[in-house]
Amino acid sequence: QVQLVESGGGLVQAGGSLRLSCAASGITFSIYTMGWYRQAPGKQRELVAAIASGGSTNYAESVKGRFTISRDNAKNTVYLQMNSLKPEDTAVYYCNARPVLWSWGQGTQVIVSS
Question: For the chain, how big is the Rg over CA atoms in Å?
């Protein structure tokens, strides 16, 4: 079965950086467009960034220029480098395919203090 394991979250001050990782198993990782999603308290889950199998990327307007998504197909892992973090980036971050294909993992909590 598919397993998605997110890691790398934490507490950081505004302006700081974090690098999230998502390790996938049970799939042929390289063929899928992968996405990072986030869910803030009281809000719906939203797509933050996506990367296609060929490496093309797209981002939500709110994170453009600050976040970078990348992937390592040899490691079945997708990354999200987050720079210049803002308090409004506080959320639980998840990875999944785009569109969503599998059950959600446990996510990784990101808290940005002002």
Answer: 13
